[in-house]
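Fig. S4 source data, part A: sequence.
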Amino acid sequence: MRKYKDRTTGCRIVEVDDLSYLRDRNHPYNWFQRHYHHHRLRRALKKAGKVVADNPGVAVDIVRYYFVPKDKISIKD
C-alpha cells in the first residue's frame, strides 16, 4: 500500500498491490500483522479520494472486503 496526494487535484490516492494476507490463511503474516495491515488499509481507503489497484483481482477484493465503490477504483496499467 502506498499513499500520496495528486499534485493537480489535491485528492488522496491509495495504491493497493496485494491483499493475499486476507484470503490465504497460510500467508507468512501472523494474526497481529494481518490485523494491523487490515485496519491500516481500511482507514486509508476510507479517507482516499481515489484507489488504484494493481490488477482486477485486487480491485474485486477491495470491493469485497472494504466495500469501496467500484467507481472510486481504477486499475493500474
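Fig. S4 source data, part B ends here. The longest strand covers residues 12-16.
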